[in-house]
Amino acid sequence: MSNELRAAFRMALAVALTLSFYFLLQIPNSLRALLAASLLCTSSSFQKNLMRQRFILMWLSSAMGMTVDICFRDAFWFYIPAFMLLIYTTMHLASRSRDTVTMVLLVYGYTGSIPNSDFFAADPVIKGFQYSVGTSLGAVMVIIAFLFFPIRKDEVLHLPAPVYFGRRALFFLSVTSGVIICVSAAVIPKYDVFVMMLGLVWAISLLSQKFSALRLQIIGLVIGCFVSLGVISMFSSSSDNVVFYVALLATIAGLAAYLGGSYPAIKPGQGFFIVGALMPCIFLFKPIPNLTILFPLFFAMGLGIFISSLVFLVFRLLEETEKWVMTWGISSNGQDACSCSVFPRNNL
Predict the structure, then answer these.
(1) Rounded to whole angstroms, how far apart are CA atoms 38 and 16?
(2) Which partner for 15 in 7, 232, 253, 333 could form a disulfide, CB atoms 3.0-4.6 Å apart?
(3) Residue 182: closest CA among 299, 63, 303, 98
(4) Range of the domain at 19
(5) Does any domain span residue 81?
(6) CA end-to-end span of the chain, whole Å?
(7) How far is CA 227 from the centre of its chain?
């Protein structure tokens, strides 16, 4: 069996097991579990120590998120800086791991503690715990999938590139989270958690990916959204065939993994394609009047990308202004303008 087929079967099995256990355990909102499973299956290496670190960091960040909600649930203007500090702290810990997968996994875990809809009416503490359980479920299913379809020695071409975000990059992520909470609560409160989820993931991509990869991610997300519309249209009239539903989503995810492995040029768009394609999972076996029910969700994802990109451009503008001022100051003192290279270009 080729490496591409092994990756496809591994992805399909992880998605199928996650959905099956969702139906058995009745965990609310299986989307996070599926996203976590598909994210971990794209990793080019699988090590016990790294998975242990991810579990610890995810539950630690989830507990911190729930603590922030308990302390500042009734004080909105204290909640915002507290959550920004949470982002800064957890991303600082996660960026010391070996890749960006851990950082994205944290986003799926602790964003369940964000109050949504009626901003502070629900109980996000319980909801955050449930979503963290769901994310852990996806990770456990990935471990089982790797046992059935392990990575062969010749398949691991290189280990994930180390990622370390500096203070400027961490500040960018924390500011982005604060802006997302404020804007999404005012514009689209019902789906503001999805604004945060995709917005923070996109912000991490802005810091760690090249422009060509970012473009492929957007294209993959758009195609995935069209696929999700097709899935919803198929199940809008009859949504009681569990086996066919699980098989269909597992096939879509497995096909995406196969194409990503066979054509490395399009692999950066694989993850965002799966995110868009799995969106119907939030409407599992619920009455669906028409396809327009997905449009606010698509708008929420696009809003998260827009907010993150806008904040990123502002930070880039400030950085370039800072460098210009430092260069101008050095030049005005009669020194060589090239000596400004002591201020290295970091992730921002």
Answers:
(1) 11
(2) 253
(3) 303
(4) 3-324
(5) yes
(6) 42
(7) 19
Sequential DSSP letters for 109-124: HHGGGS--SSTTTS-H
Tokens of 90: 């957890």
Distance CA 187, CA 227 (A): 26
Copy the structure tokens of residue 48. Answer: 């016990």
In whole angstroms, give the CA distance from residue 336 to residue 325.
14
pLDDT per residue as tens digits for the range 210-241: 888 899 999 999 998 888 888 777 765 555 56
In three-state secondary structure terms, 260 is helix
E strand segments, the chain = none
Q: Residue for token digits 């020194």?
A: 335
Tens digit of each residue's pLDDT (9 = 90 or more) over 27-68? 666 677 888 888 888 776 666 677 777 777 777 777 777 778
Report yes or no: 91 and 104 within 8 Å, Cβ to Cβ: no
The letter for the amino acid at 257 is A
Q: Which two tokens stand for residue 195?
A: 């604004």
Task: Answer whether residue 341 is part of any domain.
Answer: no
pLDDT tens digits, residue range 76-123?
A: 778 888 888 888 888 887 776 666 777 887 787 666 555 544 444 445
State the alpha helices, DSSP H only, in 27-123: 31-41, 48-72, 76-94, 101-110
Length of the chain: 348
- DSSP H or E segment with residue 171: helix 167-187
Q: pTM above 0.70?
A: yes
Are residues 73 and 79 in contact, defined by beta-carbon separation less than 8 angstroms? yes
> Which letter does DSSP use for residue 162 in this model?
P
Pick from 107, 98, 213, 96: nearest CA to 165: 96
Number of domains in the chain: 1
Residue 308, classed as helix, strand or coil, is: helix
Tokens of 245: 């539903």
Residue 7 lies in a domain: yes
DSSP letter at 164? -
